Every structure is written in structure tokens, then in C-alpha cells.
Amino acid sequence: MSGAGRLEGVELCHVSMPLVSPFRTSFGTQTTRDLLLLRVVTDEAEGWGECVVMASPLYSSEHVEGAADVLRRFLVPALAGVREATAVAPALAAFKGHRMAKAALEMGVLDAELRAAGRSFARELGAVHDRVPCGVSVGIMDTIPALLDAVGGYLDEGYVRIKLKIEPGWDVEPVRAVRERYGDDVLLQVDANTAYTLADARHLARLDPFELLLIEQPLEEEDVLGHADLARLIRTPVCLDESIVSAQSAAAAIRLGACSIVNIKPGRVGGYLEARRIHDLCAAHGVPVWCGGMLETGLGRAANVALAALPGFTLPGDTSASGRYYRTDVTEPFVLDDGHLTVPTGPGLGVAPIAERLEEVTTATEWIPVGAGS
Ligand code: SMG
Ligand code: MG
Predict the structure, then answer these.
(1) Which of 31, 166, 295, 315 to mutate to test the pocket of ligand 1 (most atoms within 8 A of CB)?
(2) Same domain as 96, residue 131
(3) Is 189 close to ligand 1, i.e. is its CB under 6 Å away?
């Protein structure tokens, strides 16, 4: 097998896509998704990577312009001689952090490699299902009635699990309202995106009676010990998102008792190969995992759906249909079928950008040659 071929360069596409509705979290409101799509070009194939950074460093320390800069000046030039996806992380290891930028490059090289070999992401990662159950992440709303309308709409569409974004002042009451209106059978969980401190433990324990699947990242990213303490003070299972940046940090969090469930986002952990390692580690510890979301386009979604089809992904992910985010996606849209998305089976991602759609949402492109930087 010849891998991906000889890397020639990467075209960085800056993309800006309007969201179908504003998405409010404890760290801000998003109305447009700005991200980077990477076209990885080799002498044998082309692959697509999606860099899931946000425009501002509010979810994590990475952001669009920072990712573009580090890709341009350091990461892409360092790929000279790399011919396959497994060689990407080692080639970039000297550069600290920037996991989302690294993940995007690895994804693009992997896509090129798999397209050249005629193999799918799902097969390569070890998927065991041909479709995955889908949850939906529901933003903070101005009023409880507006939230109930939104949740009702998603349940009507078939989503099998609801995640409510929470923050101080918007937690117990919205959860209570959703339970009262839609019943105890709805799979329900909450995500705080680091909005609380350990001093809020008593307050967060008020969520206990609602039998939530989990509470995601209540405390700061670096407060792993705090999560371990909190996990002993509340009954709702603690799930970590922002704190899990590698298999190593996942192992530590599990050992410390900081979480009993893990949200896996390939971008946050440096790529799909590291995501699979975290899946394997969690499976070995009996820790359930689920696939997080970063408002991906159809490209990232294709890869996430393949990952979510691995056996340890026993909880529905934030792998919603394209229509949850965008009126028009850059690929053929992912459409919900009985609460599930179908895992693509074609070579590589199994989907590709539709040229006119991509052009419509692209605000700038630049070509970065491999092996020609500082
Ligand atoms: O892709 O459906 C999606 C979004 C899921 O809530 C979601 N993501 O912390 O899990 C999370 C957030 C991070 C992005 S919020 C803009
Ligand atoms: Mg989260």
C-alpha cells in the first residue's frame, strides 16, 4: 500500500455558514459558523479535513485565525515526507497544543489515503454499526416556552436524546419544565461548558431527581480534581468534554474518578486516531463514550458518524442532521431517518463538497505548500 501518496500541499478554505437559528451556550451566542476546510493534495489523491475551531477562543483556546496561522507557518510545512495518516501526529508532535488544527490535517491525509485505497473511514476506524442514533444539543433560550417549543420540534423530528445547554440561572427550571412536559422517558442530559464551580455542588445536586443521563463539563477545563469531588456530591453521572484532550488525560480523569462517561470530539483530542485510542481506553475501563459535535459541516459529520459507529459509543451523540445547523450543507445533507444517521460506506469520508455550495460559503482560500515554510 502506498499510503496517501506524496503530499504537495494544503488548500485552506475559510468558510462562513449561517446557522438556521442562533445557538446560545454558557460562553456565548453563535449565529454563523466560521471554520476552516482543508483540501489535502497529494500526487495520488485529494482528501478533506475539517478544522472545528470557532471564530473566538471561547470553547477552547483555539480559534480560526490562530489555527490558520499555525497551519500555514508550522504544521503543513512539517509534513514533508509524510505519506500516511499515522505519520501525521508524530511529525507534528514537537509543536505544542493546537490539537484542532492537527486533527484537521490528519483527517485530510487519512481521507486522501483511504480514497486512494478505496476504504471507508468506518471500516478503517472499526465501525460495527451501519447507522447511529442521534441526539441534539439545544441552546439556552430566552424563555421556558421557547425552549419547550424547540425541544418538542426536535422530538417530533425523531431525535432520540435531548441535551440542554445550562448555565447559572438556566438549569433546574428548564430541566424540570422539559421533564414535566415531555415525561421521564425522554433521554435527557445537560451541558454546562465549564460555567460552575465546586461551590455550586449543592445547587447542581438539585438536578438529581430528574434522572439525567449525565451532566457534561460542569467545572473548568483544568479542574479535574474538582470534577472528582463533585462526582461524589451529586448523583447525576459526570461526563467530561473540555477536560479530555488526549488518551492520557482521559486515563487520568478515569483513574481520579472525575468522570464516569466521556464525550469524544476528534478535533479536541488531536484527531480521529487519538479519538479511537480514547474509545479503546474507555471500553477497557467500562466507561461509556459518545461522539460530541462542533457544528460540523457534512465533511466532519461524515467522519463523526463513522466514529460513533464503534462499539463503545453506547450513548447517542451530538451527531444531528445537517438541517439542525444549516439550510444548505457543503455536502449532500445528512438526513435523519427514524432518529438515526446512516454511516457512509464510500471511499474515505464517503462524501465530498459540492463545488458550487462550497464556493458560496468560502470567504477566502490560500495554498500552503508542504515543506516550504519556516
Ligand atoms: O455539533 O451539535 C453540535 C453542537 C453540540 O453542544 C454542542 N457542542 O460543548 O459539546 C459542546 C458544544 C461545543 C460547541 S458549542 C458552540
Ligand atoms: Mg460539551
Answers:
(1) 295
(2) no
(3) no
Mutate to test the pocket of ligand 1, among 318, 322, 329, 336 (most ligand atoms within 8 A of CB): 318
pLDDT in tens, 161-181: 999 999 999 999 999 999 999
pLDDT tier for residue 371 given thresholds of 50, 70 and 90: confident
Beta carbons of 141 and 124 less than 8 angstroms apart: no
Residues 60 and 139 in one domain: no
Residue 105 is assigned to a structural domain of this protein: yes
Q: Is 102 a catalytic residue?
A: no
Does residue 9 have a pLDDT over 90? yes
Whether residue 62 contacts residue 70, with contact meaning beta carbons closer than 8 Å, is answered with: no
- Is 165 one of the annotated active-site residues of the chain? yes
Confidence of residue 372 (pLDDT cuts 50, 70, 90): low
Statement: residue 373 has pLDDT above 60: no
What is the CA(76)–ligand 1 centre distance, in A?
27
Q: Cα 233 vs. chain centroid, distance in angstroms?
A: 28
Are 232 and 251 members of one domain? yes
Q: Are residues 324 and 360 in the same domain?
A: no
Residue 110 is part of which domain span?
7-118+354-369
Dist. CA 163–CA 192, nearest whole Å? 10
d(C-alpha 196, C-alpha 276), whole Å = 30
Quote the number of domains for the chain.
2
Residues 176 and 289 occupy one common structural domain: yes
> Residue 30: CB within 6 Å of ligand 1?
yes
In this structure, are 172 and 320 located in the same domain? yes
Q: Read out DSSP for 313-367?
A: B-S-BS---GGGT-SS-SSSPP--BTTEEEPP-SSBTS----HHHHHHHEEEEEE
Question: Quick check: CB of 26 below 6 Å from ligand 1?
Answer: no
Q: Model's pTM, two decimal places?
A: 0.97
